[in-house]
Structure formats: structure tokens, C-alpha cells
Amino acid sequence: MITAFIQSVFVEPWPFWAGGIIIGLLVPLLYYFYNTALGVSTGYGNLVKIILPSRHLKWIKSKFSETWSWRVYFIGGIILGGFISSTLAGSPGLTAEMGRFTNTLQWPALGNGVYFFAGGILLGLGARIARGCTSGHSIHGIANLHISSILATILFVIGGITAANIIRITLLGGSWL
Questions:
Q1: CA distance 47 to 62
Q2: CB 131 within 8 A of CB 138
Q3: 3-class DSSP assignment, residue 134
């Protein structure tokens, strides 16, 4: 019975509506307990402050007064949850496999690392420019009817579709849409 529970919770994909319910409940709980919005990009700012504590970056000092906030643990939970799920599914806990992308390109590990690190930097930069990440704008902002979040989410979707198609055409040899 425990094995079936572990299989259904940690290994098998959840139905879309179950994930939506969990996220939908998480947002008001965060407001109730922490009086804050759900978002991931701020947690990365906290990680930068932990890794580079002596840096005199103005945006780090002003925005991240509390270094070890709940967001750091949230990011840790995302990473740990993925590791546990992967391990219980019988896959390696850590892998550089990215499906069709790595199978088609077959770059060395360093090439993949540089590519995905650069992508992470661009994501972080985009989150700073948009003043929030996709989860903050799309989950919290739309729920609160913030026009800027609705616009940001529309632009996130357009940008994601465009970027995915550019990668598919230029690197994977596919066609548009």
C-alpha cells in the first residue's frame, strides 16, 4: 500500500487539475502565514546574497533584507522534490539528459552546462526586468487582477513559444510551429 502511495504521489504525473488545486491552495496559505505572494525569482536573489554576502549590489541590499527567507527553502524543496521523484522512478537522481534536445545535439557536458547556465542568466535577467517571475505574475498577479501581470503573462507565453520555435528550427532541425 505504501509503495502504491509513493508511486502515485512521487513517480506518476499528477493530473493537471490536482497540481492546480495544490498551487491554488498554496497562494492563500502564503498570504495567511507570511503575508507574501508566491514567486520563485526572489528566492534566487536570496541565494545570490547567501553566495556573495560581501557584494555591494544595490538591488541585493534593498530587496533581500532577510537572507534565509522561506523562498530559499522553497527552491531547495523544488530541487529535492525533483531528486526524490527521479530516484523513486528508477532514474538517476542527477542527469544532464534533456530529452530530444540533448539526444539531437549530443554536445559535450560542458557545452550543455554553458548553454543552460546562459539560459538561466537570461531567465533571471528577464525576471528582474519584468519585476517578477512567471509564477509570481501568472499565479499571484492574475489572481489579483493586476493588469501588469496579465500583460507580463501574455508576453511570457509569446516569448516562450517564439524561443521554443527558434531553438527547434535552428538547433533541432524542425519547422515553425
A1: 15
A2: no
A3: helix
Nine cell digits for residue 63 = 530587496
What is the rounded distance in angstroms from the CA atom of residue 113 to the CA atom of residue 9?
30
C-alpha cell at 8: 502515485
Q: What tens-digit pLDDT sequence spans the chain (177 residues)?
A: 677 887 787 778 888 898 888 888 888 888 888 888 777 777 777 777 787 776 666 666 666 667 777 888 888 898 898 888 888 878 777 777 778 888 888 888 888 889 888 988 888 788 778 777 777 788 878 877 889 889 988 988 998 899 888 888 888 887 766
Residue that is written with C-alpha cell 501568472 in the block: 138
CA distance 36 to 27: 9
Whole-number Å distance between alpha carbons of 76 and 17: 24
* Domain assignments of the chain as residue spans, ordered by start: 1-95, 98-177
SS3 labels along 21-61: HHHHHHHHHHHHHHCCCCCCHHHHHHHHHHHCCCCCCHHHH
Torsion of CA 121, 118, 170, 162, to 10 degrees: -10
C-alpha dist (Å) from residue 8 to 2, 17, 85, 123: 10, 15, 10, 32
